[in-house]
Amino acid sequence: MDIKTSTQGNHARKMLAQNVAFGLFKVLSGVIVTILFIILGFIIVKGASVLSWDFITTPPTDGMKGGGIWPAIVGTFYLMVGSALFAFPLGIMSGIYMNEYAPKGKVVRFIRMMTNNLAGIPSIVFGLFGMSLFVNFFGFGDSIIAGSLTLGLLALPLVIRTTEEALKAIPDSFREGSLALGASKLQTIWHVILPMGMPNIITGLILALGRVSGETAPILFTCAAYFLPQLPESVFDQCMALPYHLYVLATSGTDMDKQIPIAYGTALVLVIIILFVNLLANALRNYFQKKLKTN
How far apart are CA 254 and CA 245, in angstroms? Predict the structure, then answer.
C-alpha cells in the first residue's frame, strides 16, 4: 500500500511539473507573439498613412522630405539578388562537401567551429572587411557588386550550417540504397539527398535572405548612397537601400516632422517585402515537399 501511494505521489508530482512547464511555455509563446503583433501593429499604424502607389513608385524629392522610395526598393532588390547569387551556390556546395565528402574528424570540426564563429561576428565587421577587400583592394568602389559580395559573405555561414543540418537529418539508408542500385555518389546526392533536404535548405536560404535584406552596417561601407534619386545603371554604381534610407530619415535631415512619417512608411514597405519573401519561400517549401511525397 505504501509503495502504491508513493508511486501515485511521484506520478502526481511529475504531472504537476509537466503541467507547470507546459503552462510556462504557453505563456512565453503568448508573450513573444504579443510583442510581435505590437511591433507590427505600431509600424502599420504609423506607416499606413503615407503608403500609396506614388510613395512606392516615385523617387524621393526635396531632400528626402517628399516623394517616394522607389530607388531604395530597387537597390534593396539588387542587393538581395546579388548576395543570393553569391552565397546560395557556394553555401550549398560547402554544406554538401562537409556532410557528404569531407572525412569526419578534426578538420571538419575546425571548419564547423569557424563557420559558427563567422555567423556570430557583428555585421559592421563584415562591412569593414568588405570595404577593405572589395571596395579598395579589388577596386570596385562603392558599388552594388561590393555590397552584394559583402552581404553574401554575411549570409554564407548561415547557408552552410542550415544546408549541412538539412542533409545530416536524412537517414544513411537512403544513401546506401541508392549506391546499392548502382548510382554514383554524385547521382545519389543530386537525385536523392538534395530533393529530400531541399525543404529545410530553402528555410535556411530564406533566413539568410531575410537577414541581409535588413542589414545597414555592411552596405553603409560598401554601396549605400545617402541620396540618389535615379536608378543605378550597372553593378558598379552606388544605390539607395531601404535599411540605410530608413536610418538616414530617422537620424538626419532638415525637417524631421516630414521625414519621420516617411521613415515609418519605409519600415512598413521593408516588412512587407520580407513577408512576401517568406511567403514565397513557404510556397517553394510546400512544392518540394509535395513533389517528394509523390515521388
Answer: 15
| Amino acid of residue 22 | F
Which residue has cell 510556462? 24
Lowest mean pLDDT among 2-16, 18-32, 60-74, 124-138: 2-16
Of 197, 285, 278, 268, nearest to 41 by C-alpha is 268
Give CA 149 to chain center in angstroms: 15
CB 69 within 8 A of CB 242: yes
Residues 6+ apart with CB under 8 A from 86: 148, 149, 152, 153, 156
Is the pLDDT at 235 greater than 80? The verdict is: yes
| Helix (H), strand (E), coil (C) string for 96-148 | HHHHHHCCCCHHHHHHHHHHHHHHCCCHHHHHHHHHHHHHHHCCCCCCHHHHH
Average model confidence (pLDDT) across the chain: 85
Q: Dig out the grid coordinates for 295 from the structure.
A: 515521388
Dmax (CA) for the chain in angstroms is 86
- Residue 6 — very low, low, confident or very high, per pLDDT cuts 50/70/90? low
107 grid coordinates: 578538420
Cα–Cα dist 7/88, whole Å: 55
In tens, the pLDDT along 147-159 reads: 999 999 999 988 9
CA 35 – CA 53 distance, rounded (Å):
29
Q: Average the pLDDT over 66-90 and give the result.
A: 90
